Amino acid sequence: MCFGRFTRCVGYKLLILALLSIVANVLLYFPNGETRFASENRLGKYVECLHGILGGGILVLIPAIVFIVLQKDGCYGYENCGKGCVVLCSVVASLIGLLGSGYCIIISALGLSYGPYCYTRLGRNWIYPFTESSGGYLLDYNRWAECQEPRNIVQWNITLFSILLVLGAIEFILCFIQIINGVLSGLYGACCRHEEV
């Protein structure tokens, strides 16, 4: 039984998802393509958590690279004890990916629940106008007009935090599946070696 091809496929998928997470997080820093809000430190606290760059990006790139590099020739390509080491590396890398994607999921959900940091016409100040709604503002489109600057910040944040939430969830599922794949591969390899003895 060969698990290497599946692992390499997961690696390429994680690579793409990690790069998309990084791009989505970078876009959060520049509402509507404007740089002045980042330079004036007028971004929300959950935007600055680097959940897409660090969590869903770099920490997921680690297992992606491990899966692609270690899985040679479609079926590990290593002999005896080397295969066990590769399986162990695969599981450890998957755990790192789980941590990163889990961080991305949690911060994205909090960012959606908390709402954007914006200049409001009501208070004439920079505040979080939707904190008391616990995410209820997401479907209350009439309240979105409370945010005057950055323009369309509510839609911007909802779109990008939602994308990061979905990307993080897919990464989490793939890393979890790879842990199961690694454990089954290790058990199968141990059974095969035991039968050979």
Describe this structure in words.
The model is unreliable at 73-78 and 193-197 (pLDDT under 50). The protein is mostly helical. 65% of the residues lie in helices and 5% in strands. Helix 1 runs antiparallel to helix 3 (51-70). Strands 2-1-3 form a 3-stranded antiparallel β-sheet, with no helix packed on it.
Q: How many structural domains are formed by the residues? A: 1
**Count of individual beta strands:** 3
Strand content bin? under 5%
Q: Give the helix tally.
A: 5
Transmembrane segments: 12-30, 50-70, 91-114, 158-180
Main location: membrane
Subcellular location: Membrane
Keywords: Membrane, Transmembrane, Transmembrane helix
Short account of what is shown:
This protein is mainly alpha-helical and 197 residues long. The protein has helices at 4-28, 36-39, 51-70, 80-114, 153-196; strands at 118-120, 125-127, 147-149. Helix 1 (4-28) packs antiparallel against helix 5 (153-196), helix 3 runs antiparallel to helix 4 (80-114) and helix 3 (51-70) packs parallel to helix 5.
Notable traits:
three-stranded antiparallel beta sheet; 5 helices; L6_membrane; Transmembrane 4 L6 family member 1; transmembrane helix; mainly alpha; 197 residues
